[in-house]
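Batch manifest, entry 17 of 40.
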Amino acid sequence: MPELPEVEALAEHLREHAVGRVVHRLDVASLQVLKTFSPPWTELQGRTVTGAGRHGKHLDLDCDGLHLVVHLARAGWLRWSDTLSVAPPKPGKGPLALRVHLGPPGEGPGFDLTEAGTKKGLAAWIVTDPTDVPGVARLGPDALSVSRERLEELFKGRTERLKTALTDQTLMAGIGNAYSDEIMHTAKLSPYATAGKLNAEALDRLHVAIVDVLNDAVARSVGQSAARLKGEKRSGLRVHARTGLPCPVCGDTVREVSFADRAFQYCPTCQTGGKPLADRRLSRLLK
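Output type: structure tokens
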């Protein structure tokens, strides 16, 4: 799933390549991707792109006051092209959900919103105010804007595990499954630590890790083409999606805890005092 650094890089790409261009045409290949019906998607046509930004993990294309807000979900992506096909896509065929022509069809650039797999979560809204999007309205403060003092305030009294708190977008926006693993590893904290019981030293380490991990990822991502962002993200990860490989800090084997539809990775030596965490799915398989 694209997280804060990748969405920021996509926003920067659009600021560089899309701002100042006119939306000539929208091709809707999947009606279910559009979550709003008023204003209609045709209202974007003829408008000039005046800005591009980010709200947590939501991408926002400002078309002269009318916003195309996109959440890429787990398997969605933005694919930029210097020339898009003039032929409208066939609805329901392939991964394409929405195509935005920023020039005459067949002549100018634009981008596709695509989604792999059968489980669809990619969503787009056309609104006059981004906070009209329910997910944006519920967002907590952006992760890169949270000070050490604010982090302590946000976590005060929280009873959930640290992994859950870091990925709760209503608490703090922008951190997902991958970067939460990287942040906890950098801070040397267990994913199962109780968020509201972290002491001052642990909160210090956590705040430094949030800032360093996200800023480093943004620095590596911004300026990359959209096609290279996924690979750039993978290349910078130390524990996430590296189950069975050696930890680059201590050499211990990176472990995994799996759930029904997701998993997280961690290093026992760096994060849990050398003790592997219980993986309930694996335990059930061994019975």
